[in-house]
Write a structure and sequence with these properties.
It contains 13 helices and 14 strands. The strands form three sheets. It has an eight-stranded mixed beta sheet with strand order 1-9-8-5-4-2-3-13, with helices on both faces. A three-stranded antiparallel beta sheet has the order 7-6-11, with no helix packed on it. It folds into four domains: 46 residues, no CATH class; 212 residues, Aspartate Aminotransferase, domain 2; 25 residues, no CATH class; 133 residues, Aspartate Aminotransferase, domain 1 (Alpha-Beta Complex), CATH 3.90.1150. The longest helix is centred in the last third of the chain and has 34 residues. The protein is flat. It is α/β, with parallel strands linked by helices. Bound molecules: pyridoxal-5'-phosphate (PLP). The site of pyridoxal-5'-phosphate (PLP) has 15 residues, from helix 5 and helix 6. The site of pyridoxal-5'-phosphate has 15 residues, from helix 5 and helix 6.
């Protein structure tokens, strides 16, 4: 009789035979495009992806369960909930804090939250969509992160949330906010989408806030294609987050199971009749943000590679910085620096002009792209200047001078694990040519 095991084994054999077709190829400087970010995937990812396909489970299942079990161990977090993107993770983390079950700690419309304008829009969007008012603090140029003193100064009695990203893999000092947040009843959410593996005083980012978020889009430290996760460091929030992720339902049975509570037809909630099927009782106005086992299977293979990926990003960063310094490029750009007391897990290598203006930045970026070197801006630059922010009510703490400078004069290039030292030397050389031209 043909078994599933025989099918898995045959699939593996075929894949193994064609392994050389699947494995990533080195990029050739000057002839291949050197993207600012990218994925490194190969045999192991495809192997698990095929196993997930052969299961024909199609939704979240055994691969997602295994990932949710393993991933928090990497961080030292309590719990992990998989979702379908980093933006969904931000939405879910935020929505969790609007649960009425949190009583006085529930976030309300018209509460204020502190964040930065120099970053990715979906760190900020969920709270704005809900009706909260963002208070933007400026960032430092070399670390591209908000200084703790600025965040603390921006706190008012209306502040109920601090939701900030560890920008480009370089941490902000979340550790120094924990005590104040506890004393003042402020929720801290760390957007770790760009910062997997970064540490503050030896402890992983994502373990300081009540909630933290990750992205597994291909540009990030590890990938599932599309995917994300919410890390939960607080027992009560885990249950609420699960409800918001899974349609807002009160029932916590995983897909394909029933009656985990042993009282499926005995509940009395809201104004529903007693005994209404618990599977269809909704305690939140939720979403469906789940991912599939295909994504989780790829994630499991990537998780094995993750420590090497992080190490490689750090090595590439150090190498590129040395090259740029050797070529005298500090005269033209502020080079990136890790926040004091932290170990960054670099997402990209950020450069900011020293007052030459945006035309200079644009010319350098164009020159690099013409020479097959990928460039990126620091996401939204200054979010308040984005069309999406027209009509949004916000306030600025002090000023956003550096945020504006980053918008006008900043850009980043790659240090992801698919780039070799040869690629990085080529990038440094072309950058030097660009500024001296
Ligand atoms: C800081 C930050 N937060 C959130 C996201 C959104 O992640 P995703 O693309 O998976 O939705 C990104 C995307 O790059 C990001 O850089």
């Amino acid at each position: 009789m043909v078994t599933k095991e025989a099918l898995y084994s045959d699939l593996r054999e075929v894949l193994f035979k064609h392994r050389s077709l699947i494995e990533p190829k080195p990029l050739r400087s000057g002839s291949d495009y050197l993207p600012a970010s990218g994925k490194v995937v190969g045999f192991e990812e495809l192997e698990l992806l095929l196993m997930a396909s052969a299961d024909l489970w199609l939704t979240a299942g055994r691969f997602s369960d295994e990932f949710e079990e393993k991933f928090p161990k990497f961080w030292g977090s309590r719990k992990c909930l998989l979702v379908n993107s980093g933006s969904s993770a931000n939405l879910l983390a935020f929505a969790t804090l609007t649960s009425p079950k949190l009583k006085d700690a529930t976030l309300k419309r018209d509460d204020e939250f502190i964040t930065t304008a120099c970053g990715f829009p979906t760190t900020v969007a969920p709270a704005v969509q809900y009706g909260m008012k963002p208070i933007f603090v400026d960032v430092d140029i070399a670390t591209h992160n908000a200084a703790v003193d600025d965040i603390l100064e921006a706190i008012t009695p209306k502040t109920k949330l601090i939701m900030i990203a560890h920008a480009l893999g370089n941490p902000f000092r979340a550790d120094k906010l924990v005590k104040v947040c506890q004393e003042k009843g402020i929720w801290l959410v760390e957007d770790c989408c760009d910062a997997l593996g970064a540490k503050i005083e030896g402890k992983h980012v994502g373990t300081f806030g009540a909630l933290a978020t990750c992205s597994f889009y291909p540009a990030h430290h590890m990938t599932m294609g599309e995917g994300g996760a919410v890390l939960v460091n607080n027992a009560q929030l885990g249950k609420l987050a699960t409800s918001f992720r899974d349609w807002g339902r009160d029932c916590w049975c995983p897909p394909g199971t029933s009656d985990t509570c042993g009282a499926r037809f005995d509940w009395k909630m809201g104004e529903l009749p007693k005994g209404y099927d618990h599977k269809y009782i909704y305690s939140h106005l939720g979403y469906n943000l789940k991912l599939t086992d295909f994504q989780a299977a790829v994630g499991l293979a990537q998780l094995e590679r993750l420590p090497k990926f992080i190490e490689r990003r750090r090595e590439n960063f150090t190498f590129l910085k040395k090259e740029l310094t050797r070529l005298g490029l500090e005269e033209y750009f502020t080079l990136p620096e890790a926040t004091e007391g932290t170990e960054a897990s670099w997402f990209g290598f950020f450069l900011c002009g020293r007052g030459q203006g945006s035309e200079f930045r644009n010319k350098v970026v164009r020159y690099l792209e013409e020479n097959k070197i990928g460039t990126r801006l620091l996401f939204g630059g200054n979010l308040t200047k984005q069309p999406a922010f027209e009509g949004v009510s916000y306030a600025v703490h002090s000023h956003l001078k550096n945020t504006d400078k980053i918008m006008e004069e900043g850009f980043w290039i790659g240090i992801w694990p698919g780039l070799s030292e040869d690629n990085l030397s080529y990038m440094a050389e072309k950058l030097s040519e660009a500024v001296k031209a």
